[in-house]
Structure formats: structure tokens, C-alpha cells
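Practice problem: predict the structure.
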Amino acid sequence: MKNKLWKLFVLLIVLSVLMFSFMFAENIEQKACLYKINSSSKEWRTFTTKAEMISVTRLSEEVLQSLSTVELLEAVFDYPMSIDMLLYNTSIEGVEALREHCQALDRFLEKSDALSVADNYVNDENDVGIRMKLNAIKEYLGSVEK
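Answer:
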């Protein structure tokens, strides 16, 4: 009897791990498909102007409307030119400049819960770039709230 229970327990653990793996892989796939291209692709390196880069990273209105506030914030982090916001003299200038061509950022900043979402966002990957972008966005939101 103990042997059967032990086997059942192990089977449940294995099935749980497999289910989690599939769910995680599906989320990665969806996230990767939001933008048609990323900054490490061969096609990206063929662009010679910022206008070309902006045009291939446009999101449809349908996609933008379907995203939650958290998903919009993550879309900002995934935006191929999001690093640009860190290249200005101040965080506020950087966020304002990026907002002009990053639809996800513009839509995120319009949300009433944007500051709350930014404050509570968990950077699971502990990515320094995401942390810096998040801090810039929070500083911008804090300056607007005052």
C-alpha cells in the first residue's frame, strides 16, 4: 500500500512539473510574438533609420486594447528601443521621448492604476535593465502625480 501511494505521489509531482513547464513555455511564446521583430534579429540590423524601426514595432489597436496594465508595462520592457529612455539627461525626459513612439508606454501611462502596477511589479528575472526602466517610469509617474 505504501509503495502504491509513493508511486502516486511521484506521478503527481512529475505531472505538476510538466504542466508548469508547458504553461511557462506558452507564456514565453506569447510574449515573444507581441512585437514582430526584436533588436537582436538579423532584419533589425538592416534598418538604417529610426523611422524604419518604429514602423515595424507598431502594435495594432486591437492588441493594445487587449493588454492589461501589467501586460502593457511588460510590453514596454520588451519594446526593442526601450533602452532609449535611459539615454536622456533625466528619467522624465527619457520617458517622454520614448512615449512618442512606444504605443505600449503611452497606453500604460494613461492607465489610472499605472503607478500602483509599477510600484508592485515583480522583476522575476532580476534584470538590471528592467529595473532601471521601471525606476525611470516610476519617477515619471511620481512627477505627474504631484
